Fold:
Amino acid sequence: MNREELRDQLLAPVFQWTRLGRQTNRLMTGSSAVISYRTRRLLRAGAFSRQADWDEVARMTREKVEIPLQAATAMAVAMLPVVKQFWTHTGQSMLACSSDSMSLLGSRGPEEFRERQADLCATLINVSVGWLRVFGSLAEVASQGVAPVLRQVQGNAERLGKR
Structure:
């Protein structure tokens, strides 16, 4: 693995978490617009007198149940490959580190020791990059969970903004 490939692999999780941060920012902005609109509407109306107000309350109530279930389902589905990746990486890492460590211990001379030490170092770098990849995958799982909520919030903000 050359320097550029290593750099790209090390930065990938940073970009995944950055995307999740931007997605969360859009969620908070949209949520504040929806909350602001609904609060103003309720304060102006006092008691619910129009059918549109009752429809909005019914919609809010339904969303409070449906959307979290959609988010949980999306995260559960996204989590399955991450769990598989985690356990696969864990087993392969343990095997590779053990193998290279035993090989290093069995070195017969200084030159062979240096070669096997370099192999062990390369294995440790690959293990670290793999763990970073798993860490980045967690951002993707969270992103899958935020997506239904964000979609609903943005839809509500557009719909309520047109009123």
In short: The mean pLDDT is 89. Residues 48 and 66 are 24 Å apart (CA to CA). The two ends are 57 Å apart (CA to CA).
